[in-house]
Amino acid sequence: MTKLNVPLLLHVPGLQPEFASSRMPAGVRFMSPGLPRTDASPFWVSGELPFAPAEARACLNEMISLGEQFRNTRDLVTLALQPQIDPYGGNDSVRKEMAELEHFAATGESVISEKDPLQSEESLVAVSAIAAQKALILAWNLESRVHELAGLHDTLAKAAGSFKGLVGVDDEDLDELPGLSRTMGTLNSGAEDISRMNWRTVLSAVLRFAPADAVFVTTDERLVSALTELTEIVQPDDDLAQAGGVEGFGMCRVPAWTLLGHDSAPADRPWLGRELRFLVCHTC
Prior knowledge:
The protein contains nine helices and six strands. Strands 3-2-1-4-6-5 form a six-stranded mixed β-sheet. It starts with 8 loop residues before the first strand and ends with a strand. The chain is of the alpha/beta class.
């Protein structure tokens, strides 16, 4: 059989290899958000990223600082999707910006101010690249926070178990100690209760930079569930089978715009008009 060229394999929606499943096809890469130390294997770096590494780090610091003014992670996520923002604006300005950010997070479409002249096609392309890289930068940071808190939760849960043994109480005794019961309940909530960036937002940002023939690898239950609702899982194509390490993986084909919840392919985002191939695994 003639050896086929294996396309670029990109892991989604997770961006950090340390937290991915240990069972991955050979040569799988992770989308670089452009931050320092994400420019070598196993990362893949797009030549279209608008921010240099130092600029990407400064952008992350600015978003975190600005996000501390708001109550929850969702507000911080939407802040990442605004190409330009004035952190020194008044309350009316902030409310307007937040409304535009909510619109972008829900639809993927930037709001053009009525006071601004009609943006050129080149300008809109540049805006989409900035918004996409900001989304990747923040997704990276939120992913780190979730895993850090998961580790902290495990440590505290073990300590709480030792404490219950030390003071001689069991789960039934906790009903008699409401203060301790509330503390234990908080520890049992887990880090997964913390908001993560929506996988559609991350995938949309990845697609803005990924090559047209890239294949996406996922073991994420949310994404796998969405794929199986839209299409069937089949055997991987020959070029993917030759990648190695695909035992246990199936393949899905689906238009990008369908997976991301659009009624049709957006004319202003041609990268969502293509058909995507996914390698999926339920057991990895």
